[in-house]
């Protein structure tokens, strides 16, 4: 059974992404693991041992009570959206969020990470701070980013961006597997710039390799890759855009450049980042 990790702070952004996480879990016949973390304060040495103990216990109990209050609400939301059959487990832990994510991914052998994005001032951007993008790439599992306000709906068309590298075929094959179980089609995009070094023979070889699969290839010339991808999303009615993270540079580029605002934080569709 596949395992999907869903970190949540119980905000509206996270709750919206929760429904998408449920949908993914049902699609891949997986289990959804909800993760909520909180950080204990660093206290001045003037506090006595008993004071430390009292403060920490109060914080822990407060978070535990909130956790107990929120979980039934999420279960009710799952039922309202027809996902009551999805198996859910819960993890409440103190400490740094990224550390908790990495620990849970390793311990539970997580297959997917699902998170909500909320724009420039949102919780997700706080997660993606100065070295955070690099930390996330070390997970080597797909990361499903859900923009705030994007309601869950059936996936009919999956977009896939490629450089036509040989190893991209493996990622595309995995996307096709998802497409087949959701009865969706895949539209594969290559933006051909003046610096492109692929040939017609490469394009034809890919079409031959994936012959018979529910995938269509688009070779679109353009110098502005971001704009070309955005136009492609609209013109081809893409429901989910999948992109390959080329080593550690991908998240640094995705979450620190202007592409962040357009494609991740303000995107109108979910983005699934796959690792090479």
Beta-strand percent range = 15-25%
> Cα distance, first to last residue?
22 Å
The geometry reads as elongated
> Unreliable stretches, pLDDT < 50, 5 or more residues?
47-61, 120-135, 250-262
Estimated structural class = alpha/beta
Number of DSSP helical runs: 10
Averaged pLDDT, please?
Answer: 79
**Could you describe the largest sheet, including whether it forms a barrel?**
10 strands, mixed
Number of strands: 10
The share of residues in helices is 40-55%
Order of helices and strands: EHEHEHEHHEEHEHEHEHHE
**Rg calc:** 20 Å
Strand order across the biggest sheet? 3-2-1-4-5-10-9-6-7-8
Fill in the keyword field for this structure.
276 residues, alpha/beta, 10-stranded mixed beta sheet
């Amino acid at each position: 059974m596949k395992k999907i990790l869903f970190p949540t702070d119980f905000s509206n952004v996270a709750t919206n992404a929760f429904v998408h996480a449920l949908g993914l879990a049902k699609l891949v016949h997986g289990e959804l693991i909800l993760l909520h973390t909180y950080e204990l304060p660093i206290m001045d040495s003037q506090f006595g041992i008993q004071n430390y103990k009292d403060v920490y216990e109060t914080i822990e109990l407060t978070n535990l009570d909130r956790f107990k209050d929120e979980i039934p609400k999420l279960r009710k939301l799952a039922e309202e959206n027809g996902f009551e059959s999805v198996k859910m487990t819960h993890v409440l832990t103190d400490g740094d969020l990224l550390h908790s994510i990495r620990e849970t991914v390793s311990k539970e052998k997580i297959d997917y990470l699902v998170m909500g994005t909320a724009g420039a001032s949102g919780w997700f951007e706080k997660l993606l701070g100065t070295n955070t993008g690099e930390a996330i790439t070390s997970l080597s599992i797909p990361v499903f980013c859900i923009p705030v306000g994007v309601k869950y709906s059936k996936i009919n068309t999956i977009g896939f961006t490629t450089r036509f590298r040989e190893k991209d075929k493996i990622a595309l094959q995995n996307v096709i597997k998802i497409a087949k179980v959701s009865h969706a089609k895949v539209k594969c995009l290559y933006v051909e710039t003046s610096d492109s070094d692929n040939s017609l023979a490469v394009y034809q070889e890919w079409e031959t390799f994936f012959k018979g699969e529910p995938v269509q290839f688009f070779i679109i010339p353009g110098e502005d890759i971001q704009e070309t991808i955005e136009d492609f999303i609209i013109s081809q009615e893409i429901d989910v855009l999948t992109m390959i993270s080329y080593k550690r540079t991908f998240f640094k580029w995705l979450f620190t450049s202007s592409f962040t605002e357009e494609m991740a934080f303000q995107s109108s569709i979910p983005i699934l980042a796959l690792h090479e």
